[in-house]
Amino acid sequence: MSSKTKTMWNVGLIAALLLLLFLLEQVIPSGSMFFTVLKKGAIYALVAVSMNLLNGFTGLFSLGQAGFMLLGAYTYAILTIPVESRNSVYQYFDGGVIQFALPVPVALIAGGIVAAVFAYLIGLPVLRLKSDYLAIATLGFAEIIRAVFQWDKLGPVTNGSNLLRSYPTFKSVLYPFVVAGICIALIVLLINSTYGRAFKAIRDDEIAAEAMGINLAHHKRLAFVISSFFAGISGGLLAMYQTSIQASMFKSAMTYEILLIVVIGGIGSVTGSCISSFLFIACSEWWLRFLDNENLYIGSFHVPLLRPGFRKVVFAVIIMLMVLFYRRGIMGDKEFSLEKISNFFRRKRGKKEGKGGASHE
Amino acid sequence: MSDILEVKNLNVSYGGIKAVKDISFSVPKGQVVTLIGANGAGKSSTLRSIVSLVRPESGSILWEGAEIAGLPTDQIVSRGITLVPEGRRVFSDLSVAENLKIGAYMRKDALDEDLKWVYDLFPRLKERSWQLAGTLSGGEQQMLAIGRALMSRPKLIMMDEPSLGLAPIIVKGVFDIIREIHKQGVTILLIEQNANMALKAADIGYVMETGRITMTGSGAELLENDEVKAAYLGKAKEK
Prior knowledge:
The structure holds two protein chains of two kinds.
Chain A: H1 3-27, H2 33-57, H3 65-80, H4 86-89, H5 104-126, H6 131-149, H7 155-158, H8 174-192, H9 194-204, H10 206-211, H11 216-242, H12 252-265, H13 270-287, E1 297-298, E2 301-302, H14 310-325, H15 338-353
Antiparallel strand pairs in A: 1-2
Chain B: E1 3-14, E2 17-28, E3 32-37, H1 43-50, E4 58-63, E5 66-67, H2 73-78, E6 81-84, H3 96-103, H4 112-121, H5 123-127, H6 138-150, E7 156-160, H7 168-183, E8 187-192, H8 195-201, E9 204-209, E10 212-218, H9 219-224, H10 226-232
């Protein structure tokens, strides 16, 4: 397949997917769990890919994702609450200090930029650290940010530990898909550029990369800032999805969820992160719900053990099994592509016919 | 012939330990210069300090007459010095072709010609251009490491123990390549424990012992020197 037809196929596939989503939205009631999973899945896919850019492609083990999402989410919410609702939202702070509202896309990007600026500043000292130490430092940063945003003194801006709400949100499932899709496409372009190659070189061997003339500090900072930018945007999307936010939501557990998605999907695989994000959200929010039902009968048999919260036990076991049997994640460091699938089927058909499948080319 | 690289009174230490003590040597343009010596003599530290992977403590490093000691590595590489690091250090999860392209990271111009040049030098790499570098054999990885360094079109290529851990027949191949690169006009600074092979290939040799240069001479002279023979070539002193 030439690269041109490949792009055509991919664009066609994406268009078909969006059309399918659009049609489903007309048919299935909008409150359905199906859409909840799709919306949250798309948002998590974006943040997982942004984390993968850092952990999987640049080899920087960072656990600050929740902090950068918080920055994005708060920036978005603070900048978009309509002026007339500010008095009720900031009821303890006399309507807050900000008395204007920005359009949604501008605020989303501003969220990304704020996250990126913080990442730059934090990165200056922190990126000198390696592996586990970097993880600890970034995790600490995320926790500090969460605490600072709950601080009363900052109330006129952040509304202290109270909810931020009444900002514009999205209804259609297409919205997070389009935004996350564009962002992921940008990340993929970056990964395939010379910068991406330099990131991968740093991941594989820092000393050799430096000897080739790759400026380690500069490239690590670049990866960190870009990753945080997209984490910030996904934070903004998450705020829209949740319709109200509070700093206490962005716990380190959230970072671990994202890390889990990245690991299950395959460290170093963008498509793996996307696929595992939807699977993860579907499992944790939807498919295992029936396990929480205490009165589940199969025929007249009362299924034992089930009680609220039991799904989490099963979920944990599933994850352990996943990690045991798929050590490198669903995709490893491979990418899912139409070409590979078509090659796979071609080869299969060739085998069935007992002759080489190459004649189909 | 003019010296392309001149090292004067170079000192390198790690914490309190002095690895390189006040050494001076020069590399004339278009020649093969070798530093030989036992483990821990300070050979690698010397090379690494030339490209600023380690900061020299004091001393000066003149490249084409200009001071480069302590400059950031990327600037030194873009001036035309490349290091083939010890132990090959190819990017094992990247393909052979990607490895080569990273070698040319500092350059913004087209690479096709250089890729062809490297593939002509190492036809093996061309056959395996889509293979992950980690799956190559040791000798192939060494060739990739040299090819990767050549992609930056260096004026001086510095090799840190290119024969390390390779079978004798492959070591011979590596030295054939070194001669070939030299013929094409690249200046070479070579570090070796395999003194015999290195001195045969070299125009000028320096012997390093515990951080100091103790002997200098042409490759052929050092090969005949009794002390060198005893210490590095495994031949007893003739009485």
